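Inputs:
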Amino acid sequence: MKQTNRAENHSPLPQYTYTLFLGCTVPVRALNYEVSARKVADRLGLRLQDIPEFCCCGYPIKSVNRYAYLLMAARNLALAEEKGNPLCTLCSSCCGSLTEASHEIQEDPKLRKRINEDLYSLFGKRYEGNVHISHFVRILNREIGEKRIADQVRVDLSSLHVAPHYGCHYTKPSNIHDGGDDPEDPKSLDKLIEATGAKSVQYEDKLQCCGGGVLAIDEQVALAMAHRKLDHVQAQKADAMILICPFCNVMYESNQRKIEKAFQKEYKLPILFYPQLLGLALGIEPDDLGLKMNRIKATELLKKINRGVD
Amino acid sequence: MIDSKTFDPKFKFLIASEPGGENITKCFSCGTCTAGCPVREVTDRYNPRRIIRMALLGMKKEVLSSQFIWLCSSCYTCFERCPQNVKIPELMNAIKNIAVREGYLPPPMKSQLDLLASFGRLLEVTDFENGKRKDSCLPLLQEKTEDVKKILEKLGIRS
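Outputs:
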């Protein structure tokens, strides 16, 4: 194993406590994301607490009934508000939908009154609008920062070229996310990748949607959208694609074989969640980062950094 | 051929009164939404400018009964770029909410509603899933919650 010896000349890691909101997809279909995020959080001084009673964030029902979405989101936010900690999500859609709902409830007194009457009559709860919601990767970017992350790097990843996929809801709609990334030219994930020592690869249509939003309605359209992006990443000979949303993973990893068949292509492109890449750089064992759960094995990538599995 | 006699001139106001649809009448059909739309790039069945134009003309039945309103992937690219702040993904949701009330609920959305009502989540958590979580040293989840069902019942939403 190659070791790096960086001077630890930055301030020590601060301690933060968040309530972790898992949503629907992560705790059932992306355990590798959850396992690696928790490991990395622990290493970097982020305490994540759980609320087992959380339900779906409400996003899937927004197209059916907007108020039902707001009420589902408010139920979760009320539970989080009782705990008193800010909320951390791993799913970009959960982050977007909870943030939007919280802003709307906070800014519209009439809506807040109606939501709270319903929350009280149904569940004996209230939501005052005081929960701050952030995506895990934005917390890494904002609260820990690339410099401190770089200080913690123990394994040399400089041989890796990986393609960042921002997805949509991590940056957009930009009016609900408090500053940070320009939605037309986001940089935070590139910087976090570079902080691990790996190279962030640029590719065509880097900001394009994975297609997950239309998967349930029209699979062929969704697969066609993901196919274009896999082509563009492959053209740059990236070692892996780096994701920060479990639904993007459904498109690029779970459906990669289906896309290969439908479009007569061969990718075999490993799809890693950012905390898995970061965890490797921090010297955490691949098994402890859930890499065995990745459907497309990252064997070659691990060999490149001398962490080959036996 | 479009027959203007069948148009409902009030349709745009119905949409504008629906949360998310407020800015529909500001659209001047520049097509920025369609030019940057990732769904439009792979299929010509989805074309936000066309849908908004049809809605503004009052083609109520054609818009509400069509599958194309459900093809928005909610990527928010058009939301960011629209010079008139039409908030297209929110507008599409407003139109979809109206369509559902008029009885046009696509089967995949019906299935999602059933799952949410049954489990409180889109994916079921049973002993099996919790077993996998335990093997990965992850905290166990409450297997299901009735709370979403209570919300749907309270609002009279049936799949």
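Remarks. The first strand of chain A starts at residue 16 and ends at 21. Chain A touches chain B through 56 residues (CB under 8 Å).
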